[in-house]
Every structure is written in structure tokens, then in C-alpha cells.
Amino acid sequence: MFDDESSPRRSAGSSTKPGSQSALRRRNELRVTEQLLRGGPATQAELSRLTGLSTATVSNIVKSMQQAGLVTLTATTSSGRRAHSVRYIGDSSIAAGIDFGRSHVRVVLANRSYQVVAERQIPLPLGHDATVGIAAAAKLLDELLVEGGISRSSLVGAGAGIPGPIDRRTGKVIQGAILPEWVGINLHERLKSALELPVFIENDANLGALAQITWGAYSAVPNLVFVKIGTGIGAGLIVNGSLYSGSIGVTGEIGHLTINESGLICRCGNRGCLETVASTATMIQLLSRDKSHPMDAEDIVRHAKAGDSTTLRVLEDAGTAVGRALATISNLMSPDVIVIGGPLATLGELLLSPIRRGLLRHAVPVVGENTTLATSSLGPRSEALGAVSLVFQSDPAKQTT
Asked: What are the pLDDT digits (tens) for 75-106?
């Protein structure tokens, strides 16, 4: 932690010495800048807490940076009080965020001010292999650069995520991915070769978690769980303000927690996993049995909002099971907030209510009662936004080779 400017440790008349006031100020400015680059816009009070600097020091630094054209201030509210959100605008660097899904790829381009400058999603065929998906992403990236008049030289890197585990030691997609055709490929090397950029890869749920604390409303939340409920179910964990990746990068696989030991065989090989009970694929299968055409996630949302009793019952069972799994995580890490994402997040309380019941039923009471449950406000772009954050928070020199 850097010393506050008000510290008596000064060397009067020696501005070039390491312990001088000017050197200390430069280090503190760097501290604030690094936090804005890593965490996105923040109020001055949040910057003080996150950097360990006094509010007076942060105020002086922000004022100086504003005068130099490095930051902008926007009126906002924080804890019910008027405040100013500080946004870094110091350079023209652009990062690409890529979200590979089971049937889509989305590319987002954003600057260091955490402002999206270009974005598009295109469909991909079910069962596509990595060659098809990566080629589509590369083409889409080039198109967005041309359409936005953005120089390729301004790109500092690309972040990417897929719905499945990635071994951080090798950069390879491993068993358990929703894209089984991608298992075994070195996603890092393949993307790096196709894009000719520094590349940073993560599981999509981890990127969703990262997006919540950089693009979402939870920049000041130290411990957060993001849960993506889709064809698969995964969780991203934020612990003490940082993404938790474990020893090999495979964490948050709550979709494979056992819910029913006598249940169905899961794609992972185990029996009765959460995904066999609460994934959108399972819900669609249950709700499509008497339909002439299979339903999709949008149908689930529409029918639930219309009050369809069968759909609501399926959501009740699925949500309660998710809540039970989240109780296990909550008992282990006691998160401040659990954010639910994925295609059903727009259901709001229709989805949260059964999840909350499962959480409160199975969590230690004091933990369950003090855990906030919410749906993501970032919509389907959450994972791509998290991939942008991954680039800005990563050091290209530390890239996996």
C-alpha cells in the first residue's frame, strides 16, 4: 500500500528522491490509475477504499487528473448520497471481448473508459467445431473494426470465454464443456494465431463474474458469486475483490454438484448433477413433451411471465435445486452478493424466489439471511464485457505461451 500524501515522511527540497513528495504523489496517481483501469469507473469514496489512500488524497489526485484530461466525472449516487463517478479516458486503447456460445459468437469492442464502441452477435450452427467458431469470431472482429473506423493498431488484446472448463496450465478446453467438439484444443494458441493479438481466455461464468465488478453495480463488493444458468450451469467466484481461479483454473463447476444420487446420468459421467435438474436444456425437455415444436429459453420466459402453471412449476423445482447448490457455496465462502445470469435472468423474482427458498432452506441461517440475491443487469453481453475487462486487467508480458 502506498503512503498517503499527508504522511510526515518527506524529504524537503528533494523532489527527485524516491521518498519525496512529488515521487509519492506519482506513485499514488499510479495507484488510482491502476484501480480505474482494473475496476472501471468508481466514486472517489470507492477509490479511497480500494486503494487505501485517504479521501483527501484521492480528491486531490482526481482533480489533477481531470485537469490533465485523464478522467471525467459524472454525477451519480452512492449509498443514497450524491457523488461523482470517476472514469479513466487517458488513452485510445481498445480491447476485444469474445463470447463463444453453443449457438452464437458475440464480439464487443470497448475502450479503457469502459465504454462499448462496437458490438455484434451472430448465430453459429449447433455442434460447430472450434475452427468454425474461431473463424467467425475473427471475421466479425475485422468487420467491427472497419465499420467503426477503428485502427487495428489500437487493439491491445482480446479476451475470450467458452461455456466450459479450461486448464490454465495448458490453455486447453477439457471434458465438461457445453461445446464437446472443442474439447482438447488449445484455445489460447488457436485464437492467438487467428487474431494475431495477445489473447486471454477464461470460462464464461468467470467472465460473467468479472463483468459484475467492472461493468455492473458491484465494483465495491469484495465477495461475489455469478451463476450462469443456461444449457449448462457454472459459477464465477470473486474473492476479496479478485477473480478466483484455483490451482488449475477449473472452479465454480456447481452444475456438477450432486443433487439427487439416484438421478439421471449427467454428461460429466456422474449421476444426479444439478444440470440434470435445473439447466435450461432440462427445462426445455420437460416443457416440450406435449408440444409439436420444441421450446427454447425465450419460450420459458414468455410462458412464465404469462403465468403458465406448468412452466412455473418447472421453474420452482429448478430454482429450488439451484438454491440448494448455492447454499453449499455460501456456507463455504459467505458471499456478499449472488448474481444470477443467463437467458432466464429477465424473469427477475419469478426465478429468484425459488432460488432464495432453496438457499435459505439449506444455508447456515446467518449466512443465507445476509446474502443478497439478484439478477444480472448486463444481459446477454455479460460474458463478452467480462472478456474486455480480462484484457485490461492482464499484463501481456504474463501471457501463457
From this structure: 887 777 888 888 888 777 899 999 999 999 99
pLDDT of residue 398: 40
Give residue-wise pLDDT tens across range 100-151: 999 999 999 999 888 899 999 999 998 899 999 999 999 999 999 999 999 9
Report the alpha-carbon distance of residue 280 to residue 275 in Å, rounded: 8
Pick the CATH number of 94-209 from 3.60.15.10, 2.60.40.10, 3.40.50.970, 3.30.420.40: 3.30.420.40
Q: Which CATH class is domain 21-88?
A: mainly alpha
Domain residue spans in the chain? 21-88, 94-209, 217-377
Q: Which grid coordinates belong to 374?
A: 439478484
Decide yes or no: CATH 3.30.420.40 for domain 217-377: yes
Domains 94-209 and 217-377 share a fold: yes
